[in-house]
Q: What sequence folds into this?
């Protein structure tokens, strides 16, 4: 009696498992049309750099909406999967593992600090997931499956140094930055660019992140008779430095060339904007048809007081569009096919025409010099033209 | 001369933040990891006051008052269950700090806000330009610290406080209302943090995450200076402030931070009760 029941169950369970397997196989081929492509977006929504995350999310949502409204990619809609690294390197690694290993995103777009990128990179590599790192950075991040769209020193600094020296009649630079990899690498690059422009670097100082008192540094800047400060401070440190530079009476003597004082932090230095400049590939005040259209679309979707776009956030819009183009060209989401298709992609977006190099995995882009104005925006002073990223990687 | 002023400014700000922390720890055995958030609330108080009234100076009253109100609520809801339990207070106040930060972010947003300098510009001090506002902060902080010292030494309130620090049980049997003393102490210590936040807002910027960096160094001052005496705290903040400032000026800022930490470790190793010993 028992044996017969058992064999009944065995037969039934075998039949059931065959049914389940064949059902799932057929459902996966059916679901191609309804199964969305997952775009992983790893950004800084909280923590010290939390103020930069919201415009990134909005720019990304706009890009996804535009692409979905025009039919999606390969007949599939895009779905944004957003993760917050809390401006913490350890959290960045954890969230990257969640996006790659649990959510199985088809692309990982990272708009985080250089420190966080180094934690996220190996996760994407091990998961064989295409990764696009969008922010300005120090250059040299090379992986087969990694593309870097942001401004590198050869773009953000090299053409700007000789221009500033000639325009503002000075040759002495003082470098002030936060103490982590990006500022230190930029400091090193700046020294070689200043030397090439026949200027001199009178001093170079790095402070712990979260420094609020720049009295001693400003004393050194004054004692060195510097004409320019190359500022690689980020976030509230940069704001505090600019404010205190004016408090110490150096506002008329020293010009600040900042590399990370983004558009949306200008309201915090309201009365102290004179002689503060920035060099980026994108400003929210860029007066081009493409940027006007972009800003209007964002305001229509998110309201008139949508947070200001910056080069960090606009980069996510570019990244999603460029990736979508590459997937269409490759005809598949297979990582190595899309990597191949990324090379040579051009995109006309809010920051102008971008061309992705298949050899260097970096991007040639326009670089602009902006001057901070009392109404908390950057006024664009000069367009340096299309600047190449230089020999970053070689694939 | 500027080095002296810079070191003095740094030391005095450290001292102001550390005093609040020390009062709370010394009297009540509470390690308040949310002290930085009370500083942040004081800074937001300055932001609101300056925006609404158009002038900054009332912030030195309204900032601490706002923080005192919040501290009263926190004391009632959370702190009174944790007195003389340092380990539990670490966890509880860590959580409290996170809650306060997130609530602020939800109300005010994450953006960096500006409190304009009420007396911008600099004056020549022995030939070098030094910010007017920093000189004002130095003068005000010295006045506050001296006032607290006098209060502690000569007033009835100060006497009661010293009695409770020395021996809470004995003080209780003499009719002192320990619970009231604890409540007042927590509110006062937190209000001092709020005052520090309001004072430094014009030199810095106001945002929900601003608190933690200020508190780390303040804890070192409390450990090195000992909780029993203002004199100890003054010595510790002067020592640490000067070391960090000088190394930062003549070497690098990283050397300044390292120097401060090394000094703190050495002092604790050889003088575990702090710089100025108080009979237990």
A:
């Amino acid at each position: 009696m028992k044996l017969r029941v058992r064999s009944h169950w065995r037969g039934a369970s075998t039949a059931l498992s065959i049914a389940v397997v064949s059902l799932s196989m057929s459902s996966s081929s059916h679901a191609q049309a309804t199964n969305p492509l997952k775009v992983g977006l790893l950004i800084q929504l909280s923590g010290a750099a939390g103020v930069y995350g919201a415009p990134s999310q909005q720019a990304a949502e706009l890009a996804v909406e535009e692409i979905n409204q025009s039919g999606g990619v390969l007949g599939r809609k895009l779905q944004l999967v957003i993760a917050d690294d809390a401006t913490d390197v350890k959290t960045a690694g954890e969230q990257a593992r969640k996006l790659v290993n649990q959510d199985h995103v088809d692309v990982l777009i990272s708009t985080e600090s250089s420190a966080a990128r180094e934690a996220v990179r190996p996760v994407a590599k091990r998961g064989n997931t295409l990764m696009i790192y969008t922010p300005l950075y120090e250059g040299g991040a090379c992986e087969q499956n990694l593309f870097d769209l942001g401004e590198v020193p050869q773009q953000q600094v090299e053409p700007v140094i000789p221009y500033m020296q000639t325009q503002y009649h000075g040759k002495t630079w003082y470098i002030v930055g936060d103490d982590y990899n990006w500022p230190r690498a930029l400091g090193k690059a700046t020294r070689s660019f200043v030397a090439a422009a026949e200027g001199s670097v009178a001093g170079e100082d790095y402070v712990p992140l979260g420094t609020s008192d720049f009295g001693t540094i400003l004393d050194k800047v004054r004692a060195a008779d510097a004409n320019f400060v190359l500022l690689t401070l980020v976030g509230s440190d940069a704001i505090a430095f600019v404010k205190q530079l004016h408090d110490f009476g150096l506002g008329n003597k020293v010009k600040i060339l900042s590399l990370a004082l983004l558009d949306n932090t200008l309201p915090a230095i309201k009365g102290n904007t004179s002689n503060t400049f920035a060099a980026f590939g994108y400003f929210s005040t860029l007066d081009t048809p493409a940027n006007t259209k972009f800003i209007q679309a964002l305001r229509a979707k998110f309201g008139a007081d949508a947070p200001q776009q910056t080069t960090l956030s606009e980069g996510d819009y570019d990244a999603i569009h460029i990736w979508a183009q590459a997937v269409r060209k490759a005809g598949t989401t297979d990582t190595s096919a899309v990597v191949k298709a990324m090379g040579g992609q051009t995109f006309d977006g809010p920051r102008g025409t971008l061309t992705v190099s298949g050899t260097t995995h970096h991007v040639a882009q326009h670089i602009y010099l902006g001057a901070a104005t009392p109404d908390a925006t950057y006024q664009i002073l000069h367009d340096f033209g299309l600047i190449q990223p230089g020999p970053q990687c070689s694939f | 001369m500027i080095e002296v002023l810079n070191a003095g400014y740094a030391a005095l700000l450290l001292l102001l933040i550390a005093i609040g922390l020390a009062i709370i720890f010394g009297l009540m055995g509470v390690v308040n990891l949310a002290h930085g958030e009370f500083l942040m609330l004081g800074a937001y108080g300055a932001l609101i006051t300056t925006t609404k009234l158009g002038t900054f100076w009332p912030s030195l009253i309204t900032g601490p008052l706002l923080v005192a109100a919040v501290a009263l609520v926190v004391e009632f809801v959370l702190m009174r269950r944790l007195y003389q339990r340092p380990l539990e207070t670490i966890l509880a106040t860590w959580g409290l700090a996170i809650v306060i930060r997130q609530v602020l972010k939800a109300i005010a947003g994450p953006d960096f806000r500006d409190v304009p300098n009420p007396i911008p510009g600099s004056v020549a001090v022995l030939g070098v330009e030094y910010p007017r506002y920093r000189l004002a902060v130095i003068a005000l902080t010295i006045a506050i610290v001296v006032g607290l010292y006098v209060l502690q030494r000569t007033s009835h309130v100060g006497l009661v406080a010293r009695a409770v620090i020395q021996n809470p049980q004995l003080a209780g049997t003499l009719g002192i209302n320990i619970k009231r003393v604890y409540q007042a102490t927590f509110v006062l210590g937190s209000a001092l943090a709020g005052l520090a936040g309001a004072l430094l807002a014009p030199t810095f910027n106001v945002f929900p995450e601003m608190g933690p960096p200020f508190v780390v160094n303040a804890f070192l001052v409390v450990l090195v200076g000992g909780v029993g005496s203002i004199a100890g705290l003054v010595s510790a903040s002067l020592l640490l402030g000067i070391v960090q400032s000088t190394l930062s000026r003549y070497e690098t800022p990283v050397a300044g931070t390292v120097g401060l930490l090394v000094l703190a470790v050495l002092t604790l190793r050889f003088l575990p009760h702090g710089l100025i010993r108080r009979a237990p």
